[in-house]
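User: Run a structure prediction on this.
Assistant: Running it now.
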Amino acid sequence: MSFHETSVEKLSINPFTLINKGWMLLTAGNEKAHNTMTASWGSLGELWGSYVSTIHIRPQRYTLEFIEKQDFYSVCFFEEEYRNALTVCGKVSGRDCDKDKEAGLTPLFDQAAPYYAEAKLVFICRKLYKQDMREECFLDRRILDKHYSAGDLHRTFIGEIVKVLEKD
């Protein structure tokens, strides 16, 4: 199966289950160096006249270094059969091993951002905005207690979806 380029309007997806139940890989870099991470928090929508993805990355994640350096990142979604590969990508660090090899995934390189041959759906995104979450901005302190007891609040990025690739 190969990818074909499509548009956001032609997709028949539920973004809530696609992200929460299906997980996703966030990837940035190039052929010389890249990294990916599993994520289950994020969103898809419309903002500033563009279709966008919103991603959240904790400061200690190695992938953050790549997303910070690049103008583009990819968001990849997979069939359930790749759940173990996504689990590996969430547990091991690319600082310590070849994460692609450990997970059994095949990177492909768009001129903007890497993505994976095994994905069923890929969004190539151009960064538009970033901001660090701040404790004082939380209106419900229980979120801090539950998700940020270590104080490692996410950095949020909003990226314009510039290309959509879907498996045939």
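Strands lie at 3-6, 24-29, 34-39, 42-47, 50-57, 72-77, 107-109, 114-116, 121-132, 155-167.
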